[in-house]
Design brief:
318 residues, five-stranded antiparallel sheet, 14 strands
Amino acid sequence: MVEANREKVVEAFNRSIETDQYSRLKQLNIPYLIRSKSAGDPEYATIQEDGKPTIRIKKTERMKKLSKSEKMNNSFQTFLYSTNPIKIETLDSIFHKELSAEIPNVKTAILYIDNMNKDTLYSRKDTLNGISVISTKRYDYGIRNEISLKASTELPVLYILFNESIAILTIISIWFILIIPSIFILVKDIKRKTTQLCSPVVNTYNGSSHCITINNGLILDTSLCQLIGNNKSVPLTKQSIQLLALLLNSPDYFLTYQEIINQLWGPIENKGQERLTQSIKRLRESLEEFPEIIIENLRGAGYQLKIDNKDNNSKNKD
């Protein structure tokens, strides 16, 4: 924001100098021609623009570095320096009007240095100070650098706070636009990768295609992710549901280690057996409420379900 305000100050100051220069030339009310040497002299350059006077300037090193318009303006300033010099209060008034159009209630000041007479003028009786003061660099004008000008401004505190607030809100908005979708994707990915417990909501299951009957009183609901029986329900993780469903749908409720690994995670080179062991452990812990279901480890072969097919309700009555 500081650089943006500094740019506004510099642009307004440059416009003010041009306006003041044009006004002082117009006040002379004469058809003027600025020429220091006759045309054709190799030491002098001719500057000619439509509707403006012809100017002859000596080809000094400084003049060679200036553009055509800069040479013209410096020539005018040299000419006006002796015929209609800058009135510092007038220039400050023009500058204040230019800048106020963009920054209300701004304070301005102009430092004027007469390099020929070693004289310095300041447009204000007081000095501008504080954290909101912005100053331009020193600008030299005239073919011989007859004058130097520098502008200073003191911006209103409310203006700075308002613009800083807008800048902060803009940054926050951009941050939300860029970051929030990324966070959403990250959370979604974490949810996908992390084993989630399904809500233990009991629902009707008779005739449902997503229900697997284990025995007369025990049903696995793959949709609700729960094992239902004995007038109770136990929530299972999605992976536990997949593992239990695989074993229930297999001949003799048996699958080899590699068959389970391939169906759950696909072919994996490392730690497949370790992941399977951990998954079996979690499933066994969940099945503690239903002792009629046992997962046996057939050493060197695979896992097999052992299911007691007696009616659980009748077992409870006994």
